Please model this.
Amino acid sequence: MAGGSGSRLWPLSRSLYPKQFLSLTGKGSMLQETITRLDSLPCLAPMIVCNEEHRFVVAEQLRQRDLSHSGILLEPVGRNTAPAITAAALLALEQDSDPLLLILAADHAILNPAGFTAAVSQAVPAAQAGKLVAFGCTASAPETGYGYISKGEALSEYIYQVKAFVEKPDIETAKQYVLSGDYLWNSGMFLFKASAFIHELEKYHPEILSFCKEAVEGRSFDLDFVRLDEAAFRACPSDSIDYAVMEKSRNVVVAPMDANWSDIGSWQALWDINSKDDNGNVITGDVLPQSSSNCYINAQHRLVSVVGADDLVIVETKDAVLVANKNKVQEIKHVVSQLQQQSRNECLQHREIFRPWGSHDAITEGDRYHVKKVRVKPGEKTTTQIHYNRAEHWIVVTGTARVSNGSKCYLLSENESTYIPIGVPHSFENPGKVMLEIIEVRTGSYLDEDDIERIDVPDKRA
Model:
């Protein structure tokens, strides 16, 4: 499951590029790390469920690591985890007789992958016997941001009956849970037969099942993407798997998992799990800390110097900087809300925007000009398009471009340029073996992205 907006990790996480696509705990993105973690298990290629607006980011991240998959399932609208899992289960039943489904969130950190592998392997017999297995992670601290699972009777060496699912507690209750040793963090990871889940859903929330069946039956295909029927999925009730099934079913068991797990729900959580310098600072990027301690400092694009700071979160990106007290990071969501109310782009996406063919990054802009750096992958081509309010100048800085400019087609090499008049169909492609980089200068009376008519693609949203 690779949906969600991750607003609590702004400004790194944006609604169009949320935390599951960021590299926060390892060399790869959290999505890439989640899929790679499956290498030690006898899993088939995973099915990815994501928001439609994230489809190209997901496809590109899989391509970067040469990660195979069995389909990228697109949610036309967000409907929480129960409908997403239901649609995936229905598709899985079409591909296999009755597979075991391991349900994972793409934005969780697991610092002890061996513990993860062991817990999943130990839970397989219970899932094969028809149980819905929830993974409860060892509660190492009194966290108030997690739900808990109360263990009941031991059914085997590794599996327990679920006594109760518990909502996020206050701090004193959380301390009691940890001291008792009978409570586990509810990780949101599950293992069950597809048929077992569908059977329980039909008992406890048949409306979700009905709309998801309709959405799957009406699906369409676009490249590697599976598009659910929008009308049916939009009509589906929004509910979590916990509320829809797990908290109601009598067929649920819990498997303890000692994997040093975190859902990275805040900058404080990210500081907790990362390695620190001698002063307790977590540092990423070009940072010069002086007389500072217990800070999280992330410099993405330039030097950040911090003097005399304690317990701060400092995050620098190309277009926004966050400075927050580490104990107040939960209030970042209010900043994001203000940005949304003001219709500011900083809550939506980063300056660099990814497309199937590459990316473009805003460099500078004025009232009648925008300057971007455009990158095109080898063998890829932009869509043919027309702009009615702007002209464009292109300068090749790396690689070779094959340009279509009206009725003309020609090559541009490094340090060569061309001009695209208003109203002329145009595109460029990279016929070479190295990344093509172009500086694009837009000039005109209206320069926003919606001044565009694409004329050679079936998917107008590409």
The chain has a mean pLDDT of 93. The chain has three domains: 7-262, 276-337, 352-454.
